[in-house]
Structure formats: structure tokens, C-alpha cells
Amino acid sequence: MASIRLFTASPSNRVFMGYLRFPRFYASQATKGTAEEPSAESDLPVTFVEDEDLQAAREARIEQLRNKSRLLPQHRNMLHNQLPYEQSQSWIHETVKYKRMMLGRYGLEGSKVDPRVCFPTKQERLEKTEYERVAYRNTLQEMMAENKKSKEEKDTRIRAREDDVAKKMEKLDKWVADLNARIAKKEAEARAAKERKDRLVEEVRRHFGFRIDPRDERFQEMLAQKEKADRKKVKEAKRKEKEVKMMEKLKKRTADLEDGEGKASTEDAEEVEKK
């Protein structure tokens, strides 16, 4: 049972009488015990005060009932812009990063953090200097010059590419015409080959003088002979055409050389006359 202590009510502490809820029995017994001893305060009413532990528990209970939000204490502290935890609850709360964050959010007084954690230590400064020396070897001016050079090279490549595209676009019509010519040539060659094949088959049929199955060995043998002779004729024709072209080139080159010699002799004669 909690301990109980007595005090004499006076005008200054009568405010607390409304909060006391003890049975009247204790008050009456105390009044009987003190009535026998005459004193200056014998006619004042006597009351009781609860123990400090009970009063603290009641205040905690009242505070809990007042918390209608049902938030956790740390969340309620954050809502009121206060430090979430008074004591560290995890190893994270002891890290430099967390302390710096608390210091930046709640200030010097609210965070209870030593502001020296915001400044790097001597070892950290040395490590950072070494990292910068290895990672960034060039000075700012050198990096700017290198960046300018790379940008100029990139612009040069872009301009060269654009010029190349422009030149090719000028030749596009010629390329399209050449492509169409090659396609037409291949189609003509394919038609010529088909016509030649049909012609040879018809010649073989006329050679035998009667209708014969194309799968017959005699037909195949005669067709092979005809194809061989035809290829020989085509080869001979190409050789003659090539010889004709070669002769034309030689004639043209000879004419150019004669024209050049004539011009040179004319110029020499003019120089002699001038002299």
C-alpha cells in the first residue's frame, strides 16, 4: 500500500483538495487523533496527499489519454519538431551521417549533437586529397582545354559527315539510274538466257525430227552439245567485242598523244619565234 502523509489545509493549498478522492474515514480518524492535542491549526480541516509515484502514474495516464492521435512517441516528437529519440536505439543513430542529419534538421539545441561531426577529420582530409589527386590528375585549365579540343574535333567530324552526305545526295540521281540500268541488264540477261534455252530445246527437237521427252538421255546429251557450242559462240563474241573496245581505246590514246605532241611543237615554235 502506498504511503500517505498528512498536511494541514490552508488557503494556499486548498486548490489541491478537489483532486483528492480518499474515503472520509481516514479524514475522520485523523481529525479525532489530532483533536486531543491543542494547536493553533486544530480547527483547520485535515486531508491527505497521494504518494509521488501515484501522482506521476496518474499524470502519465492523463497524458496518454490526451494523446488522441495514437502516434508513437518518436513520431509524435517529429510532428512537434523535436528529436525523435532521447537515447540511441540502433547503431544507425551513432553514425556520423545520422548525427549530421539530426543537426541540420533540429539545430544545435534540439539535436544535442556536437557540431564538430560536420567537419572532416585529418584522416578523411588526407584520403579525399589522395582521391582527388588520383581521380582528377589534370588541373581545371587543362580539363577545360581538353574539353574544348574534344568539342572542336566532334564539330569537325560532324561537318565532314554533313559534307559527305551532301556530296552523296548530289550523286543520288546517278546512282539510282545506274541501279535501274543494272536491274534492267540482269533482267535482259535472264530473258536472253531463257530464250536461248528455249531455242536450243527447239533445235534439239528439230534435230531428232520427232517429239521426244526432254528427260531422255539422247535429248540431254544433244542439249549439252548445243549449249557448249552456244557458249563457245558467246565467248567468241565477247572476245571480239573486247578487242574492238581495246582498239578504240588505243586509237583514242594515240590521238591524244599526237594532239599533245602537236601542241608542244607549236608552243616550241612560238617560243623560238619570240626569241
From TrEMBL:
Family per record: Belongs to the mitochondrion-specific ribosomal protein mL64 family.
GO cellular component entries: mitochondrion; nucleus; ribonucleoprotein complex; ribosome
UniProt feature, compositional bias: Basic and acidic residues: 238-275
Gene3D superfamilies: Growth arrest and DNA-damage-inducible proteins-interacting protein 1
InterPro entries found in the cross-reference section: Ribosomal_mL64, Ribosomal_mL64_sf
Protein location: Mitochondrion; Nucleus
Source organism (scientific name): Aedes aegypti
Organism ancestry: Eukaryota, Metazoa, Ecdysozoa, Arthropoda, Hexapoda
Region (Disordered): 226-275
Residue ranges that the Swiss-Prot or TrEMBL entry lists as coiled coil: 126-203
Protein name listed in UniProt: Large ribosomal subunit protein mL64
Pfam family, one: CR6_interact
Function: Acts as a negative regulator of G1 to S cell cycle phase progression by inhibiting cyclin-dependent kinases. Inhibitory effects are additive with GADD45 proteins but also occur in the absence of GADD45 proteins. Acts as a repressor of the orphan nuclear receptor NR4A1 by inhibiting AB domain-mediated transcriptional activity. May be involved in the hormone-mediated regulation of NR4A1 transcriptional activity. May play a role in mitochondrial protein synthesis.
Keywords in alphabetical order: Cell cycle, Coiled coil, Mitochondrion, Nucleus, Ribonucleoprotein, Ribosomal protein
